[in-house]
Amino acid sequence: MNISKKAEYTAPSETLSISAKCKELKKQGLDVVNLSVGEPDVDTPQHIKEAAISAINKGFTKYTDASGILELKEAIANKLWEDNGLKYETQQIVVSSGAKHSIYNSLLALCNEQDEVLIPTPYWVSYSEMVKLAGGRPVVLPTNEDTLKLTPQDLERAISDKTKGIILNSPQNPAGIVYCEDELLALASVIKEKGLWVISDEVYERFVYDGRKHISIALFIPDQTIVINGTSKTYSMTGWRIGYTAGDVNVIKAVSRIQSQTTSNPCSISQYAALSAITGPQGCVEEMRLEFDKRRRFIVERLNSISKIACQMPEGAFYAFFSIKALSLNSEEFSNLLLEKANVAVVPGKAFGAEGFIRLSYATSLSNLEKAGDRIEAAIKIL
Ligand SMILES: Cc1ncc(COP(=O)(O)O)c(C=O)c1O
């Protein structure tokens, strides 16, 4: 049976397939250090689990409004106001099955056939595939060679009469970039002038370091911004699948319609868990952030102590993105070598549109990071 062109042109998620490979090797008894996954290593906090158990016991196990339960949308509106200074009514919010789903639904609501959507490099692996699935055309944008940040000049140069929007991600996966207020203002001014929409993916907002503060570009261009966030990373709830979208009421209505005809509501039990996460004690998030900060400093120093690789200090998220440009292997060859010969799983920069780099997640124990550092060093020595 033939599959559709759409399916044929959709690349598999590289990070998920490396993770699967890793699990397979572990099953064979190999001591693999898996630094490929993008999820916190701690368990979901107990009070969140209890909220889910209580939701089950109370019988909240049926369909909900397709766009999510009102209490959760109210909690999200409060959070966006208190944490981000963004004012939204509940009709401007829709809850989906993870931020990935929120982004995809937003693209379905915004893209017409062949609309160009700008994606600055390096980018999260799923953006370009989701744009294609939604019928748009992903246009990958070069960024500053040193900072890996998008400049207003590069943005302006890339805009054509087919450009409809841009996907911005700060704090960013894979390089841990965080755009500051001035940088966002400068980008917002170009986006405003050109009348583009922006999907602002803010799922790592709580993981910023060295006194930085996450700022949403929606503060400057609220009418043109679709804010995406979720509970996966912040509350270590990757398996619960709750994400949300906030923005222009017409776009949100369109997202809700699309959702109502495809997946219907996100899991009712997970919605109550997310409600508890967002309205409950936030100490668990700060604990995680402090722990990630320790690991960030450790792994970046360790990587920079190894000859021929170089790593800039990430400003946010929980990934280190190091350069292997001084080695004779490309990023895929090097990550295969690390997995097969050193039992360390990482993700090649190529998957993020940045050849010459490797991404590793430091959301794992310090002892795993120590082991990985030693193994990477040994693997490079014998090259
Ligand atoms: C930048 C970015 N956005 C969105 C997501 C998806 O998050 P969720 O688990 O809520 O779908 C990820 C997950 O890795 C991510 O790195």
Short description:
The protein is 42% helix and 14% strand. It has helices spanning 5-8, 14-27, 46-57, 70-84, 99-110, 126-133, 152-158, 181-194, 249-261, 268-279, 283-304, 331-342, 366-381; strands at residues 33-34, 93-96, 116-120, 137-141, 163-169, 197-201, 225-230, 243-246, 310-311, 319-323, 344-345, 347-348, 357-361.
Task: Draw up the topology in text.
Elements: H1 5-8, H2 14-27, E1 33-34, H3 46-57, H4 70-84, E2 93-96, H5 99-110, E3 116-120, H6 126-133, E4 137-141, H7 152-158, E5 163-169, H8 181-194, E6 197-201, E7 225-230, E8 243-246, H9 249-261, H10 268-279, H11 283-304, E9 310-311, E10 319-323, H12 331-342, E11 344-345, E12 347-348, E13 357-361, H13 366-381
Parallel strand pairs: 1-11, 3-4, 3-5, 5-6, 6-7
Antiparallel strand pairs: 2-8, 7-8, 9-10, 10-13, 12-13
Helix pairs in contact: 3-10, 4-10, 5-6, 5-9, 11-13, 12-13
